[in-house]
């Protein structure tokens, strides 16, 4: 039973990712009109007035994904391994990101006395999860090869893989900056952008979904490699051959 519980905790992030996409699929299917993910944000699936028949699916997916990520982050922080020798920055960033992700689904719009509080929480979630993934990916790639066997370019490879997770945030910020300065008359991104012929790469919704997909891939891979099982611990404990 304990072994099963350990495996379940190690798989919590992957299970959360699966729950997110399965629930979002169901939420989109129950949307009152045709849901276009390229021009419609995730929040469109969460609000009760916009998606009365499917908002519970979206709410459940976001909350389950956030809870799974939090459990995974706690597991990473509790392990004693080269990867988590200094886990604070990445682990805290992931914790803040996943908490913001949950709050984004649980808190109704207008509850917080902050303009665009929902968008702010979503941005904090993206940034927090992104920073956590970048930090953890960098550490994982660096620690995947023993120091004496590490090729010269391992650090560069780790930096490239880690920075790739940051790309959706950077591109979304650039797109929003361009729209704010060059197309200030546009409303917040919605399907009317499609009718006006606005390129999809300027849509925040597109980059939001793109980031979700990329983060999901990273989280599944990290959840399978970051928290080693007993066998990996034993192998790492074996002395290196002379």
Characterise the protein shown here:
The protein has one domain (about 10-230). By secondary structure, the chain is an all-alpha fold. The chain is built from eleven helices and no strands. α5 packs antiparallel against α6 (about 115-145).
Give the SSE layout.
Elements: H1 2-10, H2 12-29, H3 43-46, H4 55-78, H5 88-106, H6 117-143, H7 154-164, H8 167-182, H9 192-196, H10 204-225, H11 230-237
Average pLDDT confidence is: 79
Task: Find the structural class using helix and strand composition.
Answer: mainly alpha
Give the CA-CA distance, first to last residue.
Answer: 40 Å
- Radius of gyration over C-alpha positions, nearest whole angstrom: 20 Å
Instruction: Please give the oligomerization state of what you see.
Output: single chain
Query: Helix count, per DSSP?
Result: 11
**Helical proportion, percent range:** 55-70%
Number of strands: 0
Q: What general form does the structure show?
A: globular
Major sheet details:
none
What percent strand?
A: under 5%
Work out the count of structural domains. Answer: 1
Low-confidence stretches: 80-86, 228-242
From N to C, what is the helix and strand string?
Answer: HHHHHHHHHHH
């Amino acid at each position: 039973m304990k072994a099963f519980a350990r495996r379940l905790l190690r798989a919590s992030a992957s299970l959360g990712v699966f729950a997110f996409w399965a629930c979002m699929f169901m939420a989109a299917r129950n949307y009152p009109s045709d849901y276009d993910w390229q021009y419609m944000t995730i929040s469109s699936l969460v609000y009760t007035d916009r998606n009365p028949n499917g908002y519970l699916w979206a709410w459940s997916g976001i909350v389950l994904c956030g809870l799974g990520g939090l459990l995974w982050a706690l597991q990473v922080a509790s392990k004693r391994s080269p990867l988590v020798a200094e886990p604070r920055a990445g682990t805290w960033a992931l914790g803040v990101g996943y908490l913001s992700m949950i709050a984004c689904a649980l808190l109704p719009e207008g509850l917080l006395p902050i303009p665009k509080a929902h968008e702010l929480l979503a941005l904090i979630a993206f940034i927090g999860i992104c920073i956590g993934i970048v930090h953890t990916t960098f550490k994982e790639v660096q620690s995947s090869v023993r120091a004496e066997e590490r090729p010269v370019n391992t650090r560069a490879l780790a930096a490239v893989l880690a920075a790739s997770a940051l790309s959706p945030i950077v591109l979304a910020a650039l797109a929003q900056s361009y729209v704010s300065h060059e197309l200030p008359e546009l409303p917040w991104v919605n399907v009317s952008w499609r009718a006006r012929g606005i390129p999809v790469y300027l849509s925040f919704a597109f980059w939001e979904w793109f980031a979700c997909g990329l983060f999901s891939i990273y989280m599944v891979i990290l959840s399978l490699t970051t928290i080693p099982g007993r066998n990996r611990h034993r192998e790492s404990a074996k002395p290196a051959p002379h």
